[in-house]
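This section describes the prediction task in plain terms. A model, or a person checking by hand, is given the sequence of a single protein chain and must write out its three-dimensional structure as a string of tokens. No templates, partner chains or ligands are provided. The sample shown here is typical of the held-out split.
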Amino acid sequence: MKTHFNAKNNPRVIIIQKLYGKFFNEDEDLSFPKHRFKKFIKDVVLGSIERNELIIDELENKLGDQFSFRNLDKVFQIILTAATYEFLYKPNLSLNIIIKEYLDSSNFFLENSQTKYLNALLDNIGKKLRSKNARI
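The expected answer:
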């Protein structure tokens, strides 16, 4: 049985919206309304902002020369940034759960064909970042 979250209650949808607002709309309002996962949401949003350059370097490093982060769709950039933050700094969360949660959330922002590409990217990055010798 697949559960459908209300978009505004889905923690990763909120994370994507907050990061998109910050990076692309220069939204300075980073308030975090009351939410069951407020601490988690705040941690991922602020951590992704704080470590943004490191995350982008890590993505470009792991994905090779043919990959250009800045040429990706803006929503892709945000999802990859937040998911990479979780891959690196939330070791207690399983790779598959992080990927599934971002793919479910991406349905609010992307076409179905785009989510297949996103799935491949997240899977590739996640495996490379979570391999034993990849820790930074």
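For orientation: Confidence is low (pLDDT under 50) at residues 1-5.
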